[in-house]
Amino acid sequence: MEVLPELATGDVKHLQRCINDLVSLLALPAVWSGGDPSQVLHTLMDALMRMLRLDLISVRLTNSVGETPLEIVRSAERRGPMPSAHEICEALNQCLINDSRKWPPLLRSLMGNGDVSIVLLPLGLQGELGVIVAAAERADFPQQTEALLLSVAANQASIGLQEARLLSHQKRVASELDQRVVQRTAELAAANQELKKELDERRLIEEKLGQEERELKRSEVRKAAIVDSALDCIVTIDHEGRITEFNPAAEHTFGYRRDEVLGRHLADVIIPPSLREKHREGFAHYLATGEARVLGKRLEMTAVRANGSEFPVELAITRIPLEGPPSFTGYLRDITERKRARQELLRSEAFLAEAQHLSRIGSFSWRIQTDEITWSEQLYRIFQIDRDAQLTFELIGTRIHPEDLSIFQEHIGRSRRERSDVQIELRLQLPDGAVKYVHVAAHIRGGHEYIGAVQDVTERRSSEEALSKARSELAHVARVTSLGVLTASVAHEVNQPLSGIVTNASTCLRMLAADPPNVDGARETARRTIRDGNRASEVVTRLRALYAKKDPTIESMDLNEATREVIALSLSDLQRNRVTLRQELADDLPVVTADRVQLQQVILNLLRNASEAMSVVDDRPRDLLIRTEPDENDRVRLSVRDAGIGFEPQAAGKLFEAFYTTKNEGMGIGLSVSRSIIERHHGRLWASPNDGPGVTFSFSIPCKPEGLTSDDTHASRIPSVSDAA
Ligand code: ADP
Fold it and tell me: Best of 477, 654, 671 to mutate for ligand 1, by most ligand atoms within 8 A of CB?
């Protein structure tokens, strides 16, 4: 063992200090726990400045330690102007760039006025961490202990920096990791969100699909139900014309079971043999060219049932819109009934047209809203309007007689407003100048449409006029007939005053021939002669009035008085028939406006009928009551009540019919004429059986019939519905 030479006290102190400094340097890493390179460098530089009395210390770190290169410079204050660390670094740059392992541990350089010793200490094994530059204005710098301290410091710093680098790397890695974790987490969250969205969407799609599937199933079930319950035959075929579906209606119509026909050729099943070839050709033509002569159209053709019977069908074929080889649906309807009904309809239309033609009735409809008018054939004929003409009221108006045009227009206006049923008589003036009478009756249907009929009543009108004339002739005949019956009583009536005249005249002569002549008596008998003469003349006058064929005269008349005159005329006839006549003529009977002679004819007829009805009655008194009385509603009533044979209830409706009679000598026109006379006076004539035997015939007429003129009682009237009824 080598013995160290004894050391001087100064040296010992120096060593002690050096050891202390070494210990301080070795303790530094404990302070660098944070791993911050700048802290490492600051503490190291502070320590070295303090320990080594340096004038300048500079550390330059490469970016291998931190994010960016770092350079820290410290200089002693006591020293004068020093070159800046930067300048020193720039000066040393060349060396520093070069391989650090070749750096000289010690450089001497002249800077400024004095010598400066510079020590470069690489940091890291190869100086890869950077370099420490320590400078002092001492020639002896660095001494041995200083060099030791510097190299220990550089080592410590290298370790510290390595640690810091590692730590920083770790931190960076950790931070990067954190960042990547955060980023990944965010990405995952986003992906998760996306996934969730996708899942939601998928769920929605699945739900929708499920719903669609259910809907599809439902629609399939519905379609199947429709096909099954359809009234039409539904048959589907594939591209070869083979049956793929045959619904129950088809089974029922054609008489095949579904399973019998599935897979068979349509043509062989439902098409009559005579048409099969044509069908096959048509089908083949479509498959080859795509040209369809039947698709989408309604056709009528003949089909055949399983039992071979042929029948008409209506057919519609559609192509099923599916990809792949074409397939078709055929809808068939048995139209046997429809054809029959159509023929029936055509037949009944023809009947109707014929009936309209024969009855001269045309029908029409009029839609009020649109003025759409529809006419039957016959109506065009009646109005002599061309079948193709556009019907308007204006055009129709050209056929209306100018005198009736205003009535026609007024009726149209009223119908539009009131929408009530219409009855109207009109005259037409046709292009050929002919005048026609038409009766229009229309009924409103549903409040918006008139349905009606127009009847050409020209002929009826003429025959009515003829009838009316015949009626008046008949009335005359009836009167003349009555004349025959009454001849005896008339003769008696006239005979009485005549014999009175003769007797009185003889008496008068006798009285004048007496001596002295009885002048007073003669005067009296002469007066009686005159009275009887007047009576005979009156009878003749009344008879002439009653039986003369003179024009009717409307006048104010006393019905009681007229009745009394008739009674006077009929009295002898009644007496001959042993009829007991009772009169109840009301005192307060109002005056009536009427044709006196016509009313007297009615009364005479009633009296005569009553008398005849009692001519076979022998078991009871032949009582006849004639009564006049005021009737309600300003009318007067006259009734003739007998105790005769009466009539059977079933005859009640016929009594007033012309030519109805139960008498051998009867003509059956008396009551018919009487009723028409009373009706012309706007009154009513009726018969009712008595409680006891016999009948009461009565008439009631208004005292002042509105608008009654001589013409009314004579001329024919426009026929009304009540007439027809
Ligand atoms: P005619 O007297 O010529 O038969 P009428 O028209 O006057 O014609 O009468 C028609 C018929 O009405 C009579 O035939 C008779 O059957 C019936 N008839 C008329 N008046 C009476 C009456 N008072 N009692 C019963 N039947 C009557």
Answer: 671
609 CA distance to ligand 1 middle (Å): 6
Confirm whether 353-456 and 465-723 share one CATH topology.
no
| Domains of the chain by residue range | 13-169, 230-334, 353-456, 465-723
Q: Looking at ligand 1, which residue's alpha carbon is closest to its atom 19?
A: 609
pTM over the 0.85 mark = no
Distance from Cα 717 to the centre of ligand 1, integer Å? 27
> 576 alpha carbon to ligand 1 midpoint, in Å?
19
Could you tell me which CATH class the domain 230-334 is placed in?
Answer: alpha beta
CA of 204 to the centre of ligand 1 (A): 100
DSSP 272-305: -HHHHHHHHHHHHHHHHH---SSBT-EEEEEEE-
Q: Which two tokens stand for residue 237?
A: 């075929």
Q: Can you tell me the distance from the alpha carbon of 370 to that of 449, in angstroms, rounded to the nearest whole number?
A: 10
Q: Residues near ligand 1 with C-beta < 6 Å?
A: 605, 609-610, 613, 642, 644-647, 655, 660-663, 666-672, 695
pLDDT 10s digits, 673-717: 889 889 889 999 999 999 999 999 999 999 988 777 655 544 333
Report the C-alpha gap between 139 and 299 in whole angstroms: 130
Distance CA 255, CA 264 (A): 15
**How far is ligand 1, taken at its centre, from the CA of residue 697, in Å?**
10
Q: pLDDT tens, 300-344?
A: 889 999 999 999 999 888 888 877 788 888 899 999 988 899 888
Angle at 549 between CA 548 and CA 554, to 5 degrees: 95
13-169 belongs to which CATH class?
A: alpha beta
User: What CA–CA distance (Å, rounded) separates 367 from 409?
Assistant: 16
The CA-based diameter of the chain, rounded to the nearest angstrom, is 249
Class of 465-723 in CATH: alpha beta
Q: Are 695 and 642 in contact (CB under 8 A)?
A: yes
- Give the nearest ligand 1 atom to 669 CA: 6
pLDDT digits (tens, 9 = 90+) for 343-364: 888 988 888 888 877 778 899 9
Average pLDDT, whole number, for the chain?
82
| Both structure tokens of 536 | 């005979």
CATH assignment of 353-456, among 3.40.50.300, 3.30.70.270, 3.30.450.20, 3.30.70.100: 3.30.450.20
Q: Could you tell me how far CA 232 lies from the centroid of its own chain? A: 27
For ligand 1, atom 23: residue with the closest CA? 610
Report the nearest atom of ligand 1 relative to the CA of 646: 25
Give the contacts of 316 (CB within 8 A, at least 6 positions apart): 296, 297, 298, 299, 330, 331
Task: Measure 662 CA to ligand 1 centroid, in angstroms.
Answer: 7
**Cα(625)–Cα(583) distance, rounded to whole angstroms?**
6
Q: Decide the pairing of beta strands 106-111 and 328-334.
A: unpaired
pLDDT, tens digit, for every residue of 139-175?
Answer: 778 888 888 888 888 888 888 888 777 777 777 777 7
Nearest CA to ligand 1 atom 25: 646
